[in-house]
Amino acid sequence: MLEINQLHKEYGRITAVNELSLRVPRGSVFGLLGPNGSGKTTTLGMVLGVIRPTRGSFRWFGELPTPQQRKRVGAILEKPNFYPGFSARKNLELVAMIKEKGRDRIDAVLRQVGLYERQHDPFRTYSLGMKQRLAIGSALLADPEVLILDEPTNGLDPAGIADIRELIRDIAAMGKTIILASHLLDEVQKVCTDFAVLQQGHLIHTGPVAGQEQEVVFELDAPDQEGLLEVLPLVPGYLSHQQEDAYVSLTVASGTLPEQINAFLAERSLFLSHLSVHHRTLEQQFMEILSQHA
Amino acid sequence: MLRLLRIEWFKLRHSRYFWALFGLFVLVLLGLPLGVRGFLVYLTSQGESILRLDISAVEIPLYDFVDIWQNQAWIYTLFSLFLGFIPVISVGNEYSYGTIRQNVIDGLSPSDLFWSKVLFMLVLALVVTFITGLIGLVTGYLWSPVTEWSFVVQNMKFLPAYGLHLLAFQLLCLVVVLLIKRTGIVMALLTFYIYGVEFIAQGILRFKLEWELAAKFLPGRATHMLIPNPFPKYILQETITTIPLDGLLLAIGSVILYGGLAYMLLTRRDLN
After folding, report:
1. SS3 B240
2. Do B97 and A52 touch (CB under 8 A)?
3. Which residues in B lie closer than 8 A to residue A76 (C-beta atoms)?
4. Which among A163, A184, A210 is the end of a domain?
5. Which domain holds residue A252?
6. Rounded mean pLDDT for each run of 10 residues along chain A, 294 residues in total
7. Do A98 and B109 touch (CB under 8 A)?
8. Which domain-ending residue is among A210, A241, A263?
9. CA angle at B215 for the pair B210 and B218, rounded to the nearest 5°
10. Nearest Cβ partner of B270 from A51, A68, A98?
């Protein structure tokens, strides 16, 4: 769908994006992760034709970039950009003129993002959440093959965030490719199939979100902690363990079930006072990936 | 091409400032000849004779065919900034709203953006030239003692000359707003420059340093040099009543230079 080859952008002496190569597979929900200032928006700006790469190239739909291709992409970059004096409807009419498509979908899109009732009010009177929803609606207007959302929940209250996430999940369920740039990890974890991590313009990791789960962490404790620590390395699927404050954390190969561990220990007369599965969140993965590259 | 024009027209026709500026400009175009005529009629009614000559004020041949086109065009060039503010506000606002960038993201190329703005300027220049022509015909037929067709059309060449000036001047304004990107600052700066700095610079270059050549290349002046000041003739000085070749070349050169600069500024920079 999108193929980026050694894309590079320098602003004077600052390198915003450094020899970045990336592939976004068709149908994926692709999370672009990284702290603020890591080059996410610059990268998206380049593939959307508003920032000129210093060097490197990219291909949309397997072809070299043209403005015509961007009509098949729906995108918002950084913040919703609309004419403040125009109503939602007028703004969408203009987008449809530019994209040469989607005029007949204005009503449907306004309903989908919940702005149908307010469609005739000027954009400047909208709350931030409504502006973000209009931006997503505008990106959806021409029924694009790819949707690019840059920090779509930035600055929203919890209800607004929940609205946007639901919207993104609905869109993903329609089978569209989505590229979601965010510094919010649980956001990416909740909706993405693949992700890439940027740090200071470098790509430091890319892969599927699910594939990261090659190991499971259990928290456990027993009255006989010494005995526990002794036999832990014999647990099936054992990878490592660590003594934490109140319990022992045990890392095993994914697929190991808590009942297997419980049974194994009980056979050795070790009875647990605590056993819980500790899912490694993307947040932890992310922190690990970042610290490996620090 | 038509599509780009339609996009720009959609943006402007739903904008209040466009109608306000355009309306104001048309009011100036209408008000100037009517106001001047009214003033002359008033002077006559007061029994004043002008400059102690033996004619009444209304007999000053300002609206006479042949002369009217140059008089009108020259006076109007003093007010072109009203029209120049249209691209300034339109482009400046698009930068501050971020819509210029969103337009590109949505599928316009930067050169599409350039052409949508410039084609609209061309249309505006044509429309204003047409209105000017109408005003000239009406006021001329009302107040010119001569109304033979051959006199009416003689020197009508100043109409297209005025149109060319309008295009060049709007392009100059476009370049400034593309460089500075802040609507308010650009409007203040252009006003200060056109009605202040350039007048003074012109005075110094022409009369103090007697460096006429340099004065011709002042950015604003270069766009209206093709319409020479006709009014000295009313105090019996010799004036040029043709379009001077250097003025014409300067106006065409301005269109090419400012157009080219604007094109480069739009297409060769990041849209941040």
Report:
1. coil
2. no
3. 102, 105
4. A210
5. 213-292
6. 92 91 90 88 93 94 90 91 95 95 92 92 93 92 92 82 83 88 77 87 83 72 86 86 83 82 88 81 69 71
7. no
8. A210
9. 160
10. A51
